[in-house]
Structures are given as C-alpha cells and as structure tokens.
Amino acid sequence: MRAFAPRILNNLVRIQSSRHGNRQTMASMPTSEKRIFSPGANSEDCQAAQFTRGSLDASQLGGNPLDQFHVWFKHAQQSDVYAPETCTLATASLPDGKVSARIVYLKEFDDSGFVIYSNWDTSRKARDIRSNPHAALTFWWRELERQVRVEGTVERLSSEQSQVYYDTRIRGSRIGAWASRQSEVLSDRQKLEDRVKDVEKRFEGQDEIPVPEFWGGLRVIPDMIEFWQGRESRLHDRFRYLKDCKESSGWKKERLSP
Ligand SMILES: Cc1cc2nc3c(=O)[nH]c(=O)nc-3n(C[C@H](O)[C@H](O)[C@H](O)COP(=O)(O)O)c2cc1C
After folding, report:
1. Neighbouring-strand partners of residue 110
2. Of the candidates 51, 135, 175, 199, which lies 20 to 30 Å from 21 by C-alpha distance?
3. Do the bridges between strand 86-92 and strand 113-119 make them parallel or antiparallel, or are there none, so unpaired?
4. Residues of the chain with pLDDT under 50
C-alpha cells in the first residue's frame, strides 16, 4: 500500500487543480498515461457528444410510471431501438454489501412489475438475492437518448408461471437451462458439452420439457422508476416516481437535477 502513496498523492493534486478550473494544469495533465481518456470526445474539437434528440416535461408524463414505461417501451420498439428489452440487473449481497451487475433481457412486464429469467441456484444474482431482495434494472435506449431506471424488491415466479415462458424457448435453450450451472467455474468447455449431452439423453423423444426447479422468472416489483431524457450540455431532463400511498395514483412524481 505504501509504495502507491506518492502516485495517489500526485493524482489527488491533479484532481484538486482541475476542480479549481486551472486550464493550464488540465491541459498539461499527462493523459497519455491513461489507456482510455474521454473516448466519446470528437477528435476535432475534443468535445463530448451532445444529447439533442428530445426533451421531457412533467406534462408529457402520466401519473402511473408503469403506464409511462409501456409508452416509452413501445416507442423504443417503433423507433427501431436495438433490443430495447436489454437491461442491466444490479443486485447486492448482504452483509458484505458487495454489488454485482449484468445484462439480462426483460421478458415480461405487467402491472405488478418487470420479469427476467435466469438461474436461481448457482448464479451470482441468485446468491445476492438470497441474502438481499432488493434489485435495480437500467435500460439505455441510445437511439432515443433515453434511460429508464427501476428499483424495487424481487419475487420468484412459480414453476407453473415460468413454464409458460420456458416453453417458448427453442429446444437448445431449454436444454441449456438444465445443463448450465450458471457462473460456476468450468475446467473446460467439454464438461459443459457433456452435461448438454446428458440432458439431451434424459429428455430424448420428449417434446415437452419441464422447467428446471432452479430456473425461472424473477419479478422486480418497483418502488422507484426514473425516466431520463438526454439534453445538451448534460442538462438532462429527469423525472422520478416514488411509491407513495398518500398520492391518488399511488406514486409521487418529482423532477431531479441532471
Ligand atoms: C445481451 C445479453 C442478454 C443476456 N440475457 C440474460 C438473461 O436474460 N438471463 C440470464 O440469466 N443471463 C443473461 N445474460 C448473461 C448475463 O449477463 C450473465 O452472464 C449471467 O446471467 C450470469 O450472471 P451472474 O452470475 O452475475 O448472475 C445476458 C447477456 C447478454 C450480453
């Protein structure tokens, strides 16, 4: 730890200088030391790209954020946003508080919340959720310069409910769900292929495959949903809905600073 001290101090001095707006110090910062520095900046004027495609006002947002999400999601689909169902699921384990995040697909959405499908035995998300039922989902729709953030508690779907979606998956994916001990260390690919062969043999000649008890849907029941529209100069429009039983809609809506 001691060996790093001068470097940390050096970095702190640079950060202090830049906070005080010392342009000369900023310009002379040895950015070449950084493997990546402001990668989004335009190479001609060194300026970060601007968000210019829309704006958001309270009058454009309804009282219920679930209705609003549905409107935005349909808009994303109609605007050819690439795979708008792609989102980041963040979870955290207790008591250590370590956070983990990964991309998943939103597969179902209704008045009770947002449903994703996964392994609930060996995956990191499964371990996190066993100790802490809070989770967050984040969507980024680049083509519309929109972000949606969802936070809430989670509940598992029953096997009967999960079976409905499981049955829509191609056979290979249904077999894969049985075969993969998601996120466990694999000594080599062959071990996975062998497990797939075993599962194929087990369900040979059987069209209908039962959903594994360790696999299925997880619903995030939201208590916070934020709608974010990118604006110029990073002065974005943000509206947060918080669950609030005092409001007639059940939700309180507030504008947030960018
Ligand atoms: C585009 C994309 C979509 C994905 N969709 C899912 C999904 O719906 N369910 C899932 O379990 N993993 C999905 N994954 C894999 C996860 O990101 C992750 O590797 C896996 O769930 C294990 O994560 P964990 O051990 O942290 O729980 C997806 C990955 C990508 C890149």
Report:
1. 113
2. 51
3. unpaired
4. 1-25
Is the CB of 104 inside a 6 Å radius of any atom of ligand 1?
A: yes
3-state DSSP assignment of residue 140: strand
**161 touches ligand 1 (CB under 6 Å):** no
From the candidates 102, 130, 234, 255, give the one annotated as an active-site residue: 234
**Is there a contact between 143 and 83 (Cβ–Cβ < 8 Å)?**
no
Q: Are 104 and 89 in contact (CB under 8 A)?
A: yes
Q: Is 23 a catalytic residue?
A: no
Is 118 within 8 Å of 219 (Cβ atoms)?
no
CA 224 → CA 31, 207, 244, distances in Å?
39, 41, 10
Determine the Cα–Cα distance for residues 57 and 231; give it in Å rounded to an integer. Answer: 12
Residue 194 has a pLDDT of 98
Ligand 1 and 105: CB distance under 6 A: yes
Residue 183 near residue 122 (C-beta atoms within 8 A): yes
The reported pLDDT for the residue numbered 40 is 85
Residue 9, pLDDT score: 35
Mean pLDDT of the chain: 90
Nearest CA to ligand 1 atom 3: 104
The residue type found at 210 is P
CB 104 within 8 A of CB 87: yes
Ligand 1 atom closest to the Cα of residue 116 is 8
From 255, 253, 229, 256, select the one nearest 66 (Cα to Cα). 253
Judge whether 53 and 230 are in contact, CB under 8 Å: yes
Q: What is the pLDDT of residues 26-68, one digit of tens each?
A: 555 677 789 999 998 877 777 888 999 999 999 999 999 999 9
- Which tokens sit at 81? 């946003």
Is ligand 1 within 6 A of the CB of residue 88? Answer: no
